[in-house]
Structures are given as C-alpha cells and as structure tokens.
Amino acid sequence: MSRWNRTAVWVLFAGVMYLILTEAVWPWIHLPQLGNIGFTLVFVLFALAHCAALEGWGRTGIFFAVSAVVSYFMEEIGVQTGIVFGRYHYGDLLGAKLGHVPVIIPLAWFMMIYPSWMVARAILTGLNLGKLPGITALAAVAAFVMTGWDVVMDPGMAAEGNWVWEHGGAYFGVPRHNYLGWLATTFLVYWIAGWLWREVSRTLTTSRWFAALPVIVYAFFAVRYVAENRIPALQLVAMFSMGVPALVATIQLCLHSGTEPEPTT
Hints:
By secondary structure, the chain is mainly alpha-helical. The chain has one domain (about 5-255). The protein is about 65% helix and about 5% strand. The strands form 2 sheets. A two-stranded antiparallel sheet has the order 1-4. Strands 2-3 form a two-stranded antiparallel sheet. Helix 2 (about 35-55) runs antiparallel to helix 3 (about 55-80), helix 4 (about 105-125) packs across helix 5 and helix 8 runs antiparallel to helix 10 (about 245-255). It is globular.
C-alpha cells in the first residue's frame, strides 16, 4: 500500500470522525457540517479508500458494484411495491433521483455496509471466512450488525423528512417489515460479494489497527447515538443494537492485536 493511499485513508477517517462529532454536539455547539449528502460522500470515500488499501481495487470494485446494484434495485422495488421494506417514498432532501430512489442512496448503503462488514469480520476473528460456510456466516453476522445500525438511524431520518413511511409503523413510526428488508438486502450483498471474491486474489497486507479504523467509526457512531439522539428512547436501543457488536469487535481486536487481519480467502 502506497504512502499516498495510507495518508488519504487517515485524512478521510479524520473527516468522518469530525462529522460524527458535529452531530453528537449539535444541541450544544454548532460546528460546521456538510449535511446528509456531504456526510455520505466523505464517508463513502473513506470506505472505498480503506477497502482498497486492505483488499485491493479489484475486490473493492466488486464489493461496491454488488452493493450499489443490489441496494438500488431492492430500494426501487421497495418504493414501487412495498414488498421489500414496507410502503414508503423518498422526499426531496436527498437530492436527484434515479427512478424513485435518490442517487445518493446506493452510496449510503455502501457507507454503512463496509464498516458493518469489518465489525462482523472482527467478531468472527479466527474463523475461515473464505469457504462457503464462512462466507455465509460472515454475511449473516454482518447483516445483523448493519440492521442494528438502521434500528437506531431510521426513525430519526424519517422524522426529518428524508423518507416517509406511508402507513407508519409499530417501531417509532417505522414498520417492522423494514428490518426484514434490511436483513435480506445486506445478506445478499455480503454473500454475493464474498462468493465473487473467491476468484480475486488479495495480496495487500497492513497493520491490524489500520484495518480496525472502520470498526472504530462504527463504535463512535454507537457512542454518538447513546450520548445524544433526537428520539431519546433510541439512546437505550443504540446501547444494545450497536453497542454490543462494537464492544465484541473491539475486544476481539484487542485480544488479537499482535496478529494480521484474518484473510477472507
């Protein structure tokens, strides 16, 4: 990995951490922000750069393409039919749309898919994740890790008008159906990408703590939601839905701090 690539990852990591911090302290200190679209662009650049540094651009391209295509089509089908996530539609706050889905949405999926995948990898440290059982296990765990994130995020984003649940729902106005859709969508992304990766070599190596940067981002998000949330009851939800995976992943990283990250093939 070149020094330029490593530097870019660290700069983008610092940017993501700053933007998460601005959201956490906004009720008390109004630091400069970039809005949802700007935040997503910085975060997805970090995810892409880090994945490339860890896995190479070939694998990164496959992962991103699978994530963008699967998430877009699941969203488009979901908006038009209500089958995937429940009945909803997007407002105008997230910018231009392709069909019924804002262009930024597939990027936002990868923004969350990548760090959630890294958390799941840390949790499963020591297992062979390159064979079919390992690919399936990693996809399942990562799908729950990411859906746990949406359990905290979705009610607040909907309340701000980014999307509208047309018939409401039992969970802070969100239908329970939504989370089954998240599990299905993310499992498909992780499983398909993991299966395709079998034919693409991974030749890059890096330190375990550099590899852990997305886990740190996920954990910081959990702390941010616990410390401050526009819907106070979600602070307790965040402690368990995001806090537990973040805690287990961090413990695994600390206990295995002297070894290289587990390869996925």
